[in-house]
Structure formats: structure tokens, C-alpha cells
Write a structure and sequence with these properties.
Blueprint (H helix, E strand, L loop, with lengths): L1 H24 L3 H5 L14 H15 L5 H8 L3 H14 L3 H13 L1
Helix pairs in contact: 1-3, 1-4, 3-5, 4-5
Amino acid sequence: MELNRSVASARVAFLRVAAIVSSTTGVPVAEILERQRCGRPNRRRDSPVSFARLAATYLTVTACNIRQASLARMLGRHRRRILFDVRFIEDARERFDIDQLFERMEAML
């Protein structure tokens, strides 16, 4: 029962964050929520859709305090993939413009 509750709270938080990321980046919510498939061009980390997914993952974990394992279950991904995504954004936040973007999104939460 606790597992279902944590996955449900992860889903609610991710949907909320995806809406904020969508309004900030201009990437439609449907594309952020779309399940990633191997070999698709959106898997590149420099594409806008990929960046929006990474941003939503990062903010769900850090700003909403959702456990990585719960978010991984909800997204159908391995929890290590979530860890790598969070670390990628943490490294990207060293750039001033990216950090300002995330500060604006965090303020909206």
C-alpha cells in the first residue's frame, strides 16, 4: 500500500512540475510525458524535449522531495537513470543562464 502511495505522489508531483517546465521552455506537456524509446532523436540531451524531461525529473526529485526510486517506478525507468539525470542537471546548473532558468522554475513551485 505504501508503495502505491509513493508512486501516486510521484505522479502528481511530476505532472505539476511538467506543467511548469512546459510553460517555461515551450515544450508541450504531452512531449515531456511521452515515454522515451531507444533510438529516437529526442534522446539526445541537447534537444529541447530531452532537456525538458531532464528538468522535470530534476525538479521533481529536488524541489518536490520525491524519492528517486518512486519516480523511477512511475516513469518505468531504472532508479540509476534518474540519478544520472539529476547529476546531469546539477552539472548543467554551473552555467549562469541554466541556473537562472531553474531558479525561476523553482520559484513557481
